[in-house]
Amino acid sequence: QVQLVESGGGLVQAGESLRLSCAASGSIFRINTMGWYRQAPGKQRELVAVVYGSGTTNYRHSVKGRFTISSDNAKTTVYLQMNSLKPEDTAVYFCYAAVLKSAFDSDAMNYWGVGTLVTVSS
User: Fold this and answer.
1) In this predicted model, what pLDDT tens digit does every residue of 36-62 receive, in sequence order?
2) Is 88 in a helix, a strand, or coil?
3) How many CB atoms are located within 10 Å of the residue 54 CB?
């Protein structure tokens, strides 16, 4: 079993910053991809940012230039630095990882954290 534990959410005012962290643990051979999704009240879950094993990153258009995703050298922890936060960023943020559990697995398995709440007041 693989577990993802998020931290760093909280209540901030518009224009302020937060840094989210997600640590992966358990049966892991390699993490191919890690990312962050979010879900606002009454809306569907949406991709915020993703970092691939190669180091390539991709961002949702609305957060480009404000958010930065990164991982540690072991690629078991992912961060999301969120600057210039806006009220529309308010959501539960979920950590995601595509994990290869052993060298003999051909397909990665998807895992999710339980989420951390980010609230941005105007």
Assistant:
1) 999 999 999 999 999 998 889 999 999
2) helix
3) 8
Distances, alpha carbon 21 to alpha carbons 33, 43, 79, 113, in Å? 15, 23, 5, 11
Local structure of residue 53 (DSSP, 8 states): T
Residue 45, amino acid: R
If you average pLDDT over residues 98-105, what whole number do you get? 89
Cα 15–17–20 angle (5° rounding)?
A: 145
Only one residue has tokens 């941005």, namely: 120
pLDDT of residue 72: 87
Over its C-alpha atoms, the chain yields an Rg (Å, rounded) of 14
Q: In 3-state terms, what secondary structure has residue 39? A: strand
- pLDDT score recorded for residue 113: 97
Residue carrying structure tokens 């643990």: 25
Instruction: List Cβ<8 Å contacts ≥24 apart for 47-53.
Output: 48/80, 48/93, 49/80, 50/96, 51/78
Structure tokens at 57: 């990153």
Number of residues that make up the chain: 122
